[in-house]
Specification:
One of its GO terms (cellular component) is cytoplasm. GO terms for molecular function: glutathione dehydrogenase (ascorbate) activity; glutathione transferase activity. It comes from Podospora anserina (strain S / ATCC MYA-4624 / DSM 980 / FGSC 10383). The structure is a single chain. This protein is mainly alpha-helical and 283 residues long. It folds into 2 domains: 93 residues, Glutaredoxin; 158 residues, Glutathione S-transferase Yfyf (Class Pi), Chain A, domain 2, CATH 1.20.1050. Helix content is 49%, strand content 6%. A 4-stranded mixed beta sheet has the order 2-1-3-4, with helices on one face. The longest helix is centred in the middle third of the chain and has 26 residues.
Length: 283
């Protein structure tokens, strides 16, 4: 079967907590977030806006039906797209690429949570691990989700690769504190991966053998180092998923099942899906 070129059955709006939050930010405002409720890249930017306690307008679009007006703002047609208040002489200003959007908001606004550390070394280290998330964990997540029996790599192989990269990430987490990646508190490294961490249950739904993270009762037989890694993972997961700014950006769980069925069958027409299918870097 040829990949689906246009995903036509996606719900036109968020549901649950995300719908309530979108409605709270539906009034006109010079700072606008063009978003898709189902998109983890959007979720990064949305969480950042909430963490920074910034007022904005949330505008839901279907990126598979890109209007001429939206493409005039962002010819690449990617979400999130952030429209800024006009610059000098009314010049329109637009940003996209989720990590860039998050960094801009963190640097531009002093309110709310500081997501990147002030210290130059700690800030560089955070960016290093955001880069690891992007290249290894996010790319690996899609490669895992889009595995089908006709792939030249095995499901077990891609699962093992993803889990090894996940363990590398976890081993770099601060051992003390409240559970965040860095001792300085909730930050951009956490934001960068949590949307995909919160979608790992979809591997259990769609992939034989599931994601492969050992449950509590399965950890007793593991060697001590391995067991501590998964205990630390669980502490981080519970901390980030329990954060109010994160909980408010989720739609009802069942809505994600239909969206990611296309990925699980490797039939999605999204740019990320196409890049994964063709072995290219994510856009």
């Amino acid at each position: 079967m040829a990949p689906q070129q246009v995903d036509t059955t996606i719900s036109p709006s968020a549901t649950g907590p995300a719908l309530a939050l979108a409605k709270q930010h539906s009034a006109d405002h010079p700072l606008k977030l063009y978003a898709g409720w189902f998109c983890p890249f959007v979720q990064r930017a949305w969480i950042t806006l909430q963490e920074k306690e910034i007022d904005y307008r949330y505008i839901e679009i279907n990126p598979y039906h890109k209007s001429p007006e939206f493409l005039a703002l962002n010819p690449r047609g990617l979400i999130p797209t952030l429209v800024l208040p006009p610059g000098e002489e009314g010049k329109q200003r637009v940003l996209y690429e989720s990590v860039i959007v998050c960094e801009y908001l963190d640097e531009q606004y002093n309110s709310g949570t500081k997501l990147l550390p002030w210290d130059p070394y700690e800030r560089a280290r955070a960016r290093l691990w955001v880069n690891f998330v992007e290249k290894k964990l996010v790319a690996g997540w899609y490669r895992f989700m889009q595995h089908t029996p006709d792939k030249p790599y095995s499901l077990e192989g891609v699962r093992k690769e993803f889990l090894e990269n996940l363990k590398t990430f976890v081993r770099e987490m601060d051992e003390e504190g409240e559970g965040w990646f860095s001792e300085g508190g909730f930050g951009l490294v956490d934001v960068s991966f949590l949307p995909w961490a919160g979608r790992l249950w979809l591997m259990d739904h769609y992939k034989e053998g599931g994601v492969g993270i050992p449950k509590r009762e399965e950890r007793e037989g593991l060697e001590e180092g391995e067991r501590k890694v998964w205990e630390r993972w669980e502490r981080w997961y519970e901390a980030v998923m329990g954060r109010e700014t994160v909980r408010g950006t989720w739609s009802e769980r069942e809505e994600y099942i239909g969206v990611y069925k296309r990925y699980a069958e490797d039939q999605t027409g999204s740019e990320v899906g196409k890049a994964t299918r063709e072995g290219r870097a994510l856009p």
